[in-house]
Amino acid sequence: MPSTPNQPTTPDPESLVDIVAIDGPAGAGKSTVAREAARRLGMRFLDTGAMYRAATWWAMHSRVSLSDPDALAEATRRMPLELIEQDGGLLVRVEGHDVSQAIRTPEVTRNIRHLDGVPAVRAHLVQLQREFAAKGPTVAEGRDMGTVVFPRARCKIFLDASIGERAQRRALELEKNGVPVDRAALEAEIAARDDNDRNRAVAPLRPAHDAVLLDTTGKNLDDVIDEVVRIAKPTR
Ligand code: DC
Description:
Blueprint: E1 19-23, H1 30-41, E2 44-47, H2 48-61, H3 69-78, E3 81-86, E4 89-94, E5 97-98, H4 106-111, H5 119-134, E6 138-142, H6 145-149, E7 155-160, H7 163-176, H8 183-199, E8 212-215, H9 221-232
Parallel strand pairs: 1-6, 1-7, 2-6, 7-8
Antiparallel strand pairs: 3-4, 4-5
Helix pairs in contact: 1-9, 3-5, 7-8
2'-deoxycytidine-5'-monophosphate binds near residues 53, 142 and 144.
């Protein structure tokens, strides 16, 4: 396919060798674990969920119809997205606005399902993800890192936990930030996201055949981080 100025050529995934791919369902602790593991391994951290969130925020902000896949794809291609690593977090900017908090509202979270099944939206974000990783050793977390985006990653980990535990962790996180929580509603929302992630036609959530499965139910996140670092440390 010829490339246009808006569509830089995708680096060959075969050449992306120093990648740790971490996948798993919502609330399994991927972001916390991947960010801290990246820091300890001296690698960059890529939160691909933040990219789907930013694309959703941008579509809503630009008043693009969420039921028009072509318009969503076009908006995603035009999104001026910057991901900036900072101590203790990731700064997400779209068109110069800091949207790091805005992309995590329940409204954005609910609307991601309109974009994450659109092949042209995914194709563009996958291209950005590969470009990011081509710049240096990367721990990338999401739903399809080991299966689609980085099939030749040198290490693949699938983090899972029971739905009850994932809801409990999310509730504690929200309560810590002073947000009142309806636990039953939270669990139902996570179940709906699981269903959407696992059953979409394009890039469904599933462990790669060569992924290490890590069930974090009942484990504390510090122990999980230690385990991920042990698994992901290069053996030279
Ligand atoms: O990890 P998260 O909760 O921030 O991800 C938000 C949503 O983005 C998630 O519900 C599904 C979608 N997503 C995706 O489809 N593929 C990815 N690689 C990462 C996230």
